[in-house]
Every structure is written in structure tokens, then in C-alpha cells.
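Hi V.,

You were right to ask for the full record rather than a summary. Here it is.
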Amino acid sequence: MTKMNKTDLLAAYLLVGSDELKQQRSVARLKQYLNPDFIDFNVEEHMSASTLEQESVLNALQALPFGDSRKLVIVWEADKLTKDVSETLVGYLADPNPSSVLVLIAHSLAKSTRLYKAVAKIGTKAVIDCAAKKKFALAGDVVNIAQTYGLHMDNAAARRLIFKVGESTVMLDNQLASLAARFGAGAAIHVSDVDAYVAQIAEVSPWEFLDVLCNRDFARSMELFQAMKSNGYVPLQMYITTCLRELICVKALQARGTAAHIASELGKQDWQIKNYPGFARKFAPGELEKLLKKSKELEWTLKNSSEKDTAFIQFIVAVCGK
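Predicted structure:
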């Protein structure tokens, strides 16, 4: 949101998307338009829309500001508004109070809803896109956030931070603030610094692990395994067993020249098996069958032995051809 004159503020804004940091910063910028001497009187913030009542929100919007020309009524989790309150806001936006600015923050709100359409009619800049970027495209944003704290971080360190913390921009921002407090402005943050000072709090998807394992990337497989083994060895082994069986099927279809039927034979969507042909080609004939046998042996060990960690690592070594 670019800085403008206070008189140019719209009667309503909708911040929609899962990028919480962008939402928080947009709200903070809107608050900067208010006279700081009277800001406590002119900001009414509701953290949970589900408990909001029609009369209270309407009274807040219709009330005049104190010692200023604008007031903010901020509603978080606007996608959880009751139908009655949502319809009240739709009616209000048809003829809004020029002294009030309604700020709705939602994780998701369909463009087809009456509330979305009512806000969109206020102006072309009334709806602010706060959609989160995909994981592969998030590193650049992390580098930029680091710069706001005076830190120098390359893409490798940013990707490592995302791996350890997850994709929440608020959590990433908090970790960067912590690193800035530790190292000071002007510091260069490397992968080793992230490993040393940032705890692993993000969960690793089993599908992400399977993709890396089937790509026979040993170093990355071990990294992901160490991050997710606390979720349970047996469920992970079951996922691997299923995947090996599917790859055996894929390899058989490739040998027959009917690879185009992979999705239908496995009962999956095309996007679910887009990497399977490449994975299958990485294994020699008969190799997947041997690994399937090893997987069953691993299952027995996990259920009957205390050497779970060693057994699983040995199995990863075998899958990766080490």
C-alpha cells in the first residue's frame, strides 16, 4: 500500500490472503495515517470476527472520530463473520460513513461473495492481495525482509530458514528479528548460522520426503528424515512401501510402452504422478523389487527392535544407491 493523503483513504479495505506479515504491515501503515495523539480513541480492533455483533460494529462505524478526521474499524478473520453481520456490512458499504475506514482481514474470501463485491465497489485499490507465495518463490521475500533488519542473506540461507521455520511470513520475520538482535546490523547470515541458531519447528511433508528419496538424493533425504522422524517411523515406512509398489507399476508400464496409462492404472491425478516416470528410470530392472523386500524387512525391525534409527538410515542408503 503506497503512502497517500489521509483524505484519499477509502471507506473500506479488504486484505485477503494467507500472507500474515503483509496483512500486519498493511494495517500498521493504515494506522500511521491517524493522529498519534488520539490513536487510542480512533482505532477499534476486533481480533475475532466470529464474535462480532451487528449493532456493535455498526455503531463503531457510524461514530465520529475524536480529535482527527478519520477512525479505523479493523476486523480480523473476516471470513468467519456470521451471515447477519456480513449482510449488515454489505448494507453499510452502500452508504459508508466518510469519517470511518473499515478494514477487513481474511485468509480467504471468494470474489463471488456479496461482502467481497461490496468492498471492491469502493475503489480499485480497496482489495489488497495478500496471497502467500509458493515455497519455491518465497526465498526472495525472505532476503528482502532480512534487509529491513540490516542483514545480508543469500538465497541458500533464506531457503534453509524456510525449511526450518516454515512458510509463515510472520514466523520468518520473527526469526530474522531474532538473528538481527544476535548478530547486529550489517551481519551476513549464512546457512551455518541458520543451522546453529534457528530451531527446527516446521513439519516436513511425507510427500516432500518421498520425492527426494525417490530422486535418490541421499544428503537431502537424510536432512528431511532427521526433521520428520519424530512423527513416527512406521507411518513413514508405510508411505515408502506404497510408493515403491507404485514405481514398480510405473516401470512395468514403461517397459510395455504404455506409460501414458500411469495415472489411470494407479488411480491418481496426473499432477500426483508427474515425477513418477523420471523416478522409475533412476532404478535398474529388478532394483525396486529388492527395495520393496528391504522395506518389509525394515517394517519388522521397526516393530520388533530398538535399532530403529540405524535400520531406517541403512534403508535410505539402499534406496539412494549408496
